[in-house]
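Example 5.3 — FAD-binding oxidoreductase
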Amino acid sequence: MPSRGDDSLIRDSLISDLRALVGERGILTAASDIEPYLSDWRGLYHGQSPCVLRPADTQQLADAMKLLASRQVAVVPQGGNTSMVGGAMPDESGRQVVLSLARMNRIRDIDPVDMTMVAEAGVILKAAQDAAAEAGCLFPLSLGAEGSATIGGVLSTNAGGNTTVRYGNARELMLGLEVVLPDGQVWNGLRRLRKDNTGYALRQLFVGAEGTLGIITAAVLRLVARPRAREVAFCAVPDLAAALGLFRRFRDRDEASLQAFEYMSGTGVGLVLKHIPGTALPLAEAADHYVLVDLASPRPDAGLRTLIEAVLGEALEAGEVLDAAIAESTAQIQALWRLREEHSESQKLAGASVKNDVSVPVSRVPDLIRLATAAAERLMPGIRAVPFGHMGDGNIHMNFVQPEAMAPAAFLARSHDLMDQVNAVVRSLDGSFSAEHGIGRLKPDMLADWRAGAEFELMQRLKAAIDPAGLMNPGKVFEIPRS
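Solution (predicted structure tokens):
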């Protein structure tokens, strides 16, 4: 068995050889430089690593991967480090190399006729959105972490976000990929084709695989026509059934214009107003339930103001809406959306929280929120339920904040009990225990349980075929086998 001195020699040799491949700027070894890469956003995981690899291009990465594979060194890819499930964290052994794609941040091409963009994995999502806008197009993937999440990360996790109801998840916005495989081979599948029936759709294997099969280095992204008309409303509704009823009204009137429909509880909005400076309720009175409606169209004469006023007027008469505020400017749109986007940060400031990213059929969202809240309150009186999210696509973040009189550590010790309660409800409603956050380090045991049988075995076979040594992001998606 290697001694501690042997480990140091092996580590030093590895770092020296990696530096020769990627240069001084391509590797971080000082403890102070590595530290930001070793903790996740939620503070759930704190890992160790001998170095952080930062290649400048695909060839440098491929060369480094060949070396790492030959030394049987595991690799943990990391984008913007915004994972909610510890998907980009190394373990505590100090033997896993963190791979940052931050330097691979070029937009290689934008074609406004094809409506495509070729972006490298390290491109920040917001930068991709801005580049598309400059070309007169829209890259519609939008989420709270878009200022730090990267293209490689959102594809590797098949991110959803706010506009899934209209544009789909990241998977639906990707036409082709460039991927470095575990052995250092480069697969160039950067095809801009809408139709390509030539065998297996390999690109889909890597989207949502959380870096366990290979490393996405670039992607062909699908753009859409930019909106020239937009209307946003913040509404108080009497109950969950009314929220769903309002969604149906907008969908049935003009499904093509509905780009987001977000639910928020009174508790959640209250936490935002309490903890986030500069936020304000745009309505005369507080309510127990709110929704945010976002309509957009590429046609400047789409008549969205008439549409939103008509639908809200009908809903007011039917008792489905108590009050509503329609944004009159871009600044007001941003203010209304901030009430939704600051939910995660306000929960963090309010105390310890347990997060459940789940989905059910859209028609069963009210049942999910009602039953999961009741189950959690039975388990822990005084708990604060903060359900919010994408009612229009069935994805609700069924979150809970600690009771005010409870210590954070004691609350977090019951995390899995709370998740079990929520998941029992989700399973009874034919839902999924992970809607858009993925599996990461937090939920591999749930995957084995929920997807047992042929589905789970097929996943394991794919993993074994592409990454037989198990060096790609170990411990994520699949549990590490016990020896």
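Remark. The longest strand covers residues 229-237.
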